[in-house]
Amino acid sequence: MTDDNLAVYQMRENRYKNKEIAAAMHKELFYIEDIIRQNNRIGKKLYREDDEWQRLNARRNKQRR
Questions:
Q1: What is the domain range of residue 40?
Q2: d(Cα 50, Cα 31) in Å, to the nearest integer?
Q3: pLDDT tens for residues 32-51?
Q4: Is the pLDDT of residue 1 over 70?
């Protein structure tokens, strides 16, 4: 194998490795986006429940007066 052939072989190998790395990073990004989406959904639900609790608590405090 000459130096030119070796260089071409190494370039192809590196290109293949880079494609694998890019695919793994892309998959990881989708995974992270799913986690963020789930957390946002949970956060909205908690906010709604807290808001409802605050309203009930305010109504109860008015009745005590």
A1: 3-64
A2: 29
A3: 999 998 888 888 888 888 88
A4: no
